[in-house]
């Protein structure tokens, strides 16, 4: 939990839920029970706005980071000293794009810029958030607190998904198909992901997680089933809107 960078689970207490021993079904229904249409609205909001919200305000990021943590401050806790100049260059690039878009609006009109830049940008944001959310948010993915966390456990706490089938492999360069191996070897070229994953699966065995559930079904179900984790314990799994978990740690955690 303390090492998670994004999609950090909310805890029982942060949602204002009573203790597990005292909570009644009505408590969960009152705080977590939403109509399907409202859930769809909130999910759509996530898909379109979560990426800029994370970059600007660290929304869904590590809550232990200082207030106002963001991805545009070169001195942010998110970056190493060696990355400071790269952040500055990135900010200059973003500023240049903003100036270009402003000029494009004055020449071609705001609606044309929205049509040819704004809407495609929102679609890219949707796919990016959907892929990363489903990588790191699932009822079967464990989350570790500091005492039992290690780099290997943290790297294995993600899900490979055959996202969009061959289209995902071709257009998205296997980003969803072979994400677990990326956690272990972030500099591995994407075209070696399939071969490397075969060896990783053989090595880590049951700790390798994959799911062939259709992507949009997984998005809807995980958004509903991954509500919070407990305040206590070192190995945690998401609980749903009724306070139920599909997995529990087998050891004394």
From TrEMBL:
Fatty acid desaturase domain ranges (all copies): 57-210
Pfam families: FA_desaturase
One example GO MF annotation: oxidoreductase activity
GO biological process annotation, one example: lipid metabolic process
Top-level taxon in the UniProt lineage: Eukaryota
Name of the featured protein: Fatty acid desaturase domain-containing protein
């Amino acid at each position: 939990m303390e090492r998670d960078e994004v999609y950090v689970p909310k805890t029982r207490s942060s949602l204002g839920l009573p203790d597990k021993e005292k909570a009644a079904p009505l408590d969960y229904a009152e705080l977590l029970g939403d109509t399907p249409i409202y859930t769809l609205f909130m999910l759509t909001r996530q898909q379109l706005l979560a990426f800029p919200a994370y970059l600007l305000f660290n929304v869904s990021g590590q809550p232990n980071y200082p207030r106002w943590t963001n991805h545009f401050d070169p001195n942010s806790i998110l970056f190493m000293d060696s990355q400071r100049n790269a952040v500055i260059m990135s900010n200059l690039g973003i500023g240049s794009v903003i100036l270009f878009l402003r000029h494009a609006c004055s020449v071609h009109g705001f609606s044309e810029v929205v049509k040819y830049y704004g809407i495609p940008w929102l679609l890219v944001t949707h796919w990016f958030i959907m892929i990363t959310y489903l990588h790191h948010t699932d009822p079967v993915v464990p989350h570790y607190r500091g005492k039992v966390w290690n780099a290997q456990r943290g790297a294995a706490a993600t899900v490979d998904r055959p996202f969009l089938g061959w289209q995902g492999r071709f257009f998205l360069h296997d980003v969803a198909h072979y994400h677990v191996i990326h956690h272990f070897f972030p500099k591995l070229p994407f075209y070696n992901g399939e071969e490397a994953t075969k060896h990783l699966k053989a090595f880590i065995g049951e700790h390798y997680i994959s799911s062939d559930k259709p992507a949009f079904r997984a998005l809807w179900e995980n958004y509903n089933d991954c509500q919070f984790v407990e305040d206590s314990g070192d190995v945690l799994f998401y609980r749903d809107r009724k306070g139920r978990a599909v997995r529990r740690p087998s050891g004394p955690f």
